Amino acid sequence: MADEKATIIDAQADVEGKLKGKDAVVYGRFRGEIALSGRLVLGEGARVEAAVTADAAEVSGEMKGDLRARSVTLTEKARVQGTVDARVLVVREGAWLSGSVSAGEGASKSAPAPVAHAPAGDRPPAGDKPPSGDRPATGDKGDKAGA
């Protein structure tokens, strides 16, 4: 993307509509639809409410809506609410994701499935039942060690 020109929406911009093209970088606000054949970068200050399709997407800001790309990276400061559909999904520690996720080989072939929103260290081993919503995921109600 460095050698080619990309569409840039700067931090002071507030755009509503459709964005089509190859590559784009958003630092400001965008509402509508984004359809790119290349890469989308949402900077730390970005606030996007859109249906997004791109070859690759890197999110460091806030996004609400549907995100569909071959490769999606959510950086440490990413805040995503909506649907993510990607063959390759990277979620860095600190990123926040709320919604449904479809990732892997068959990602765009099937409907997105709901995802549990527990930090990686709190996930139960494969085959175990996830903790119910009626009790804490770790420890018991009388445990004061973490308080």
Description:
The protein is mainly β and 147 residues long. 0% of the residues lie in helices and 51% in strands. The protein is built from no helices and 10 strands. Strands 1, 2, 3, 4, 5, 6, 7, 8, 9 and 10 form a 10-stranded mixed beta sheet that branches. The chain is globular, with a radius of gyration of 18 Å. Residues 109-147 have low confidence and may be disordered.
Structural class estimated from helices and strands: mainly beta
The count of helical stretches stands at: 0
Low-confidence stretches: 109-147
Instruction: Calculate the mean pLDDT score and round it.
Output: 80
Largest sheet: 10 strands, mixed
Rounded to an integer, what's the Rg over CA atoms? 18 Å
Helix content: under 10%
Gross morphology is globular
Order of helices and strands: EEEEEEEEEE
Termini separation comes to: 48 Å
Number of strands: 10
Short description:
The protein is mainly beta and 147 residues long. The protein has strands at 7-9, 14-21, 24-26, 29-36, 39-42, 47-59, 62-74, 79-91, 96-103, 113-114.
List the helices and strands and how they pair.
Layout: E1 7-9, E2 14-21, E3 24-26, E4 29-36, E5 39-42, E6 47-59, E7 62-74, E8 79-91, E9 96-103, E10 113-114
Parallel strand pairs: 1-3, 2-4, 3-5, 4-6, 5-6, 6-7, 7-8, 8-9
Antiparallel strand pairs: 9-10
For this entry, give a set of tags.
mainly beta, ten-stranded mixed sheet, globular, 147 residues
